[in-house]
Amino acid sequence: MSTGDLGTLTMRKVPLISNAEKVRGAVQRVVASELPALPVVGPDNKYLGIFGEREFISALFPGYVGELRSARFVPKQIDAYLEKKAACGEESVLKYTNTEHIDVSESFSDMQLAETFIHHRVLIIPVINGTGGVEGVITRSDFFKVLAERFNEMLYR
Length: 157
Hints:
Layout: E1 17-18, H1 23-33, E2 37-41, E3 47-52, H2 53-60, H3 78-84, E4 104-105, H4 110-120, E5 124-128, E6 134-139, H5 140-155
Parallel strand pairs: 1-2, 4-5
Antiparallel strand pairs: 2-3, 5-6
């Protein structure tokens, strides 16, 4: 799918999360996909953002946790946080969706993928078609594997 010279890189078709879906269902979809995140779409099936591991963790823990230099002083009882935030499972996934729109068009280049993975520190990049729909995703781990294979091929020619 890549327009660059990493011809073996393939885009993954993935399930999409509706913006009206509840967090509990979205979490189940992400876990079942075995990916770190999935694209979220609106009623028109246009891309809105992503929801995944980072967004779910952010939903469970107080906002200040991300600002701390260390949380060693916080007790280790995760169940207390889970019980306290269990209600977020019934909230709309849209409340926690990352809407930064870090994505690429279908005519992406390998350099564009590299820049996006490095600069934005994301684990997936949605591939968006001309009408704003999601065609699939490119994962950082898939991109890494293709780069490593090509790198090793060049070393051992």
